[in-house]
Design brief:
Layout lengths: L3 H12 L7 E3 L4 H10 L8 E3 L14 H11 L8 E4 L2 H9 L4 E5 L3 H6 L7 E4 L5 H4 L5
GO molecular function: nucleotidase activity
Pfam family, one: Hydrolase
Amino acid sequence: MPNPNLRLMLQRLKTSGKVDRLWLFTNAYKNHALRVIRLVGLGDLFDGITFCDYAHFPLTCKPMKGSFDLALEQAGVSDPKNAIFVDDSGLNVKAAKNFGWGKVIQYIELEEDIHNLKNDDEDISIIRDILDIEKVCPELF
């Protein structure tokens, strides 16, 4: 379902002059990821995608280092400190932090997930609403 407020926030990011590109980094296969972002009305906002290629063996996906390295390479980011990573998986956000990504944000949607959260890393920001990206990264807007 489209989220017009999320679309507006992403548009503000793109036009702020402080973000070089918006990149989709997913464990989904490319066709599925592109279909989903099109259905939610965000397909035109992303500059590219790093996806899990299920036809390629060995499989490389988050939280594997090779997947994070590929995302940086494809997005044209030479220093991971310049990358911002938002994900709903605790394993993936911890991996991004361990691999030196600059800003790491975990999106926790469900109440039961917040109770199970074992985030002992104060460098990982926790948000409960995707629009709170603006609150934890005000320097980007």
